[in-house]
Request: fold
Amino acid sequence: DEEREAANLRLRIGFVLLVGLSAGLVSLQASPTPLQFVGAVLAGLVVGALLILWLVRSYRKSLL
Reply:
């Protein structure tokens, strides 16, 4: 069960990082300043975290 929890945590972290880095890469299309690039990555990380929270809650509700 510990291995399963560790794998779930790694998957969640990976998902959040993927969304955050994707936002940063998309921002590169507009030639951002370094501060804007960092802001886009941080905003993407927040969106990724919110998405994973929503997905986990929705999944748990569907099990009931």
Observations:
- The chain has two helices and no strands.
